[in-house]
Amino acid sequence: MKKVLKRGLTLTFIALGLLGCSSEEDTIVMSPLPIVKSQFTPKILWTASVGDGVGHYFSKLTPVYAYNKVFVASRDGEVKALDPETGKTLWEVDLGEDEPARLSGGLSALYDKVYVGSENGQVYALSAEDGSLVWQQDIEGEVLAKPLADENLVMFNTAKGSLVALKQESGEQAWVINNEVPNLTLRGDSSPTSISGGVFWGMSNGRLAAALIQKGQLLWQQPIGTPKGSTEIDRLVDVDASPLIIGSSLYTVGINGQLVAIDLRSGAPMWKRAYSSATDLATDGSKLFVVTDQDHLTGVDVRSGTKLWENDELQYRQLSEPAVIHNYLVVGDNEGYLHWIDRNTGAFVAQQLIGDDDDGIAVAPIQLDDGFIVITREGEIKKMQIPEGS
Questions:
Q1: Which one in 66, 194, 282, 306 has a CA-CA gap of 20 to 30 Å to 99?
Q2: What is the reported pLDDT for 71?
Q3: Beta-sheet pairing, 162-167 with 153-157
Q4: Is 23 among the domain residues?
Q5: Considering only CA atoms, which of 287, 327, 320 is closest in space to residue 40?
Q6: Has residue 134 been placed in a domain?
Q7: pLDDT of 5 over the 50 cut
């Protein structure tokens, strides 16, 4: 099925998440569904649901597996813990009883708590055991990215350009690092990443930042993209991908910028390659997997940045972040298909429709010990399993 979309709508919803571009009359054509001879069909072990999902809103409400539970949430405020073996609801809470919750940033789980943030600038810590509210805090700015919990702090990167650290026991603010935000930015933010007492995150001004977690002291900023061009859209340089750490190296990518490898010890770039993306990277340890702003999939060598393969057959199909599941690279699209790809060649291996047609997939599947979890935009959750030998 071929879909033709207005350029403004496509950039808003597919690649850039921009506002105010609907006057553009150029069209972008979503690639038709590739014809794939599937080598296997994952088995559905159970199904469940959570509220009305996220609908067609921008959202990165990714399920999380911790404490032998699968935690899921919907934009309207429903949060659930599911039994990973049966899909049975262990507990559920509604954070939107008094007003629309507009949950959008999460989920994270650590310190026996589940953390989630909202477009309302409210952040929550729930008991992982029973879902009871441990604390709730207001912070300045929308929370669109998954928070980071480390060193007894929970860190939220906000749309106002602030990285806010709260004490995990009480929600009391420990520190905040503020940065200027350009007039025009993408819809979305980078989820922070940490290692060895340092926190790393991307910013809307095209830079990657590093700070000490305990002190909230900014250590360095590294430019990932430099504004170029004559229009504000051309000059977008947001770094919305979450930094990815492999060993002593950090990798990140920006819109209209570069895919960059950075030495964590010195903060100096090791190599840079021209890629434009606002989507999280994935890795199998030897390769990086990139979803570009045109929804091209690319495999890149982590040591040199050399392109190993590229697959452009899913162009503008509004892909989720990539995930490595067993021996495959997996992405979902906005028509509700999962695409299974050979990590070494970029060739399609299998394809499967999840849920009803056009019930899209906004976030990557997550892997469990005995299968994987996928959630659709309408809140349908499935635990699935690849046949043995696949």
A1: 66
A2: 98
A3: antiparallel
A4: yes
A5: 327
A6: no
A7: no
pLDDT digits (tens, 9 = 90+) for 61-86: 999 999 999 999 999 999 999 999 99
- Say what the alpha-carbon torsion angle 135, 139, 145, 147 is, to the nearest 10 degrees: -40
Task: Please report, for residues 29, 231, 267, 297, the alpha-carbon distance to residue 294 in angstroms, rounded to integers and kept in the order given.
Answer: 11, 19, 29, 9
Q: What is the pLDDT of residues 316-363, one digit of tens each?
A: 999 999 999 999 999 999 999 999 999 999 999 999 999 775 689 999
Nearest to 255 by CA among 269, 240, 271, 242: 240
Structure tokens belonging to residue 94: 């509604």
Which residues are CB-contacts of 389 (< 8 A; sequence separation ≥ 6)?
none
pLDDT at 20 over 60: no
Number of domains in the chain: 1
As given in the structure block, the two tokens for residue 344 are: 């070494």
Per-residue 3-state assignment (H helix, E strand, C coil) for 74-125: CCCCEEEEECCCCCCEEEEEECCCCCCCCEEEEEEEECCEEEEEECCCEEEE
Q: What are the tokens at 10?
A: 């496509």
Residues 6 or more apart in contact with residue 169 via CB below 8 angstroms? 111, 152
User: Token pair for residue 152?
Assistant: 């007894």
Pairing outcome for strands 133-138 and 148-150: unpaired
Other beta carbons within 10 Å of 278? 26
- Please check whether residue 2 lies inside any domain of the structure: yes
Task: Tell me the per-residue pLDDT of 168-213, one tens digit each, with 9 for 90 and over.
Answer: 999 999 999 999 898 888 899 999 999 999 999 999 999 999 999 9
pTM over 0.90: yes
Candidates 258, 112, 255, 134; CA nearest to 186 is 255
CA dist., res. 264 & res. 248, Å (int) = 6
> Which single residue is written with the structure tokens 């991908």?
241
Two structure tokens written together for 199: 């926190």
* Structural domain span for residue 4: 1-30
- Contacts made by residues 126-130, CB under 8 angstroms, sequence distance 24+: 126/79, 126/93, 128/66, 128/67, 128/69, 128/71, 128/81, 129/67, 130/91
**Cα angle for residues 385, 87, 357 (degrees, 5° grid):** 65
For residue 36, the model assigns a pLDDT of: 97
- Spatial neighbors of 35 by CB under 8 A, at least 6 apart, are none
Largest CA distance in the chain: 55
Domain assignment present for 17: yes
Count of C-beta atoms within a 10 Å radius of residue 60: 23
